[in-house]
Amino acid sequence: MNKNDIVTVEITDIGVSGEGIGHVDGYTLFIKDAVIGDVVEAKVMKAKKNYGYARLMKVITPSEYRVEPKCAFARRCGGCQIQEMSYDRQLVFKDQKIRGNLERIGGFTKDQIDTVMQPVVGMEHPFGYRNKAQFPFGTDKEGNPITGFYAGRTHDIIANTDCALGVEQNKEILEIILQYMRENKIKSYDEKTGKGLIRHALIRYGFKTKEIMVCLVVNGKKLPKAERLIEKLIQIEGMTSITISPNTRRDNVIMGDSYEILWGQGYITDYIGNVKYQISPLSFYQVNPVQTEKLYGLALEYADLKGDETVWDLYCGIGTISLFLAQKAKQVYGVEIVPQAIDDAKENAKINAIDNAEFFVGKAEEVLPKYYAEYEREHNGETAHADVIVVDPPRKGCDETLLETIVKMQPEKVVYVSCDSATLARDLKYLCANGYEIRMCRGVDQFPQSVHVETVVLLSQQKPDDTIEIDLDLDELDATSAELKATYQEIKDYVLKEFGLKVSNLYISQVKRKCGIEVGENYNLPKTENPKVPQCPKEKEDAIKAALKYFAMI
Ligand code: SAH
């Protein structure tokens, strides 16, 4: 395959970024905007030895999953990657993405995954779901101010005030801002020269309260003739907060460090479930409130709180999950790295009269291990306990130091909320090698039309009981059962690694029985009348006991 070759190819798979994948004589091509099931004509843009990237030139036979995109800019805009795929198929893609990572990175078997996986929670209306949008401003060839979205991987602005993912009010607000700029000769900021005033417009909408916030990010301190803009904006129903955020830095960070109120108040209010939040221009808040409620509902369902539990919510942001869970728990502790978010979390606890949530600023991988060590010191070796630990880390997942401490604390349940199923799978592998088991796993589609998917997983401790069940399975003469091999094999591997000793299933079962762990009636039962059954030597018995301890079976 060479650059500029034109090929006809059937799309048989979907890549992690939503691109179509097809094969031509064993050579793999990645083709953006091609939908699984399409037969397309594509032009090779980059050819490596075994794979290449091609541009979609023409859809020859459209896939049954191909739909007309709602937005005219769907292909060019960097915001949506799979708008041309039917929504049902998007959900299948997301389900497969999670499964694929659990299998490849997590090392879980298809059977294990089938047992725990529930179908992805989709949206009834997968458009207009975002409560927040940050529109960059620029200038067109004629010198007029424009606003819209960045084209994929660039900072070129596609002029579009009507993004299909945002609320309908965005369009009117943006048109008012553009008109104000034209009438008052106010220029858009230019990244290249660092000149011009208006950088971004942040618009937030409270889905439950219908309150609207507009914050203009400006390359300066003031907005000239602001009253002319305010006068128009306050005509819009629900307008609650108009602010500016000065940002004169020349980097890619959108917001300034502070904001100033031009009209109304500095925040809007919204609800997730019955928890109320005050959202300022600078605070983090989940962008899809409808799905967030489902996501946290699922986390709450998995945590299955009865009212007397101690819960940790790590990577808590503004305390959204913490406050959701606090209503059903005895005590919640939240940990978050951004101090401003913790201020918001405390404030949110206050306005909801929630007094059983405490928040700590710091890295989860430092705060929790430190808490654990101090607790042990102050309580004469007694270890800190948690009933449920919730983690909701950023894309890079959890630090291993944190996972180690979680394992030490032995919470009954771990609820893992993840925005990247690859790092999730890596972390689950660690937890499952250290005494936990996945009980439930479910994707929640927070970002329809994009390739992203959130995942919620419930883990609980592997119980000695589980081992009994598995052992009994063996007794049903299924000696090759995969789960079983894993358990005995894990013990064998551990003993070999830690003590350099090889032990047999027989010895393991003998030691298990000695330790009061039942192994089925007829399994390798030493019959006293049969003196030929070898007995496990002391050295190996101690090693197996150490393994049983390690796997928390005794
Ligand atoms: N659970 C929250 C936010 C999750 S987003 C919610 O649903 O609203 C992940 C959060 O982790 C962000 O707020 C980010 O600031 C924070 N974070 C990133 N690295 C961290 C670390 N090492 N320790 C603690 N928090 C961290």
From TrEMBL:
Active site: C419
S-adenosyl-L-methionine found in the keyword field: yes
Record-listed S-adenosyl-L-methionine binding positions: Q286, Y315, E336, D392
EC code: 2.1.1.190
GO molecular function: rRNA (uridine-C5-)-methyltransferase activity
Domain TRAM: 1-58
Database matches in InterPro entries: MeTrfase_TrmA_AS, MeTrfase_TrmA_CS, NA-bd_OB-fold, SAM-dependent_MTases_sf, TRAM_dom, U5_MeTrfase_fam
Gene3D superfamilies, alphabetized: 2.40.50.1070, Nucleic acid-binding proteins, Vaccinia Virus protein VP39
Keyword Transferase attributed: yes
Alphabetized UniProt keyword annotations: Methyltransferase, S-adenosyl-L-methionine, Transferase
SUPFAM superfamilies, A to Z: Nucleic acid-binding proteins, S-adenosyl-L-methionine-dependent methyltransferases
Sequence similarity: Belongs to the class I-like SAM-binding methyltransferase superfamily. RNA M5U methyltransferase family.
Protein name as catalogued: 23S rRNA (Uracil(1939)-C(5))-methyltransferase RlmD
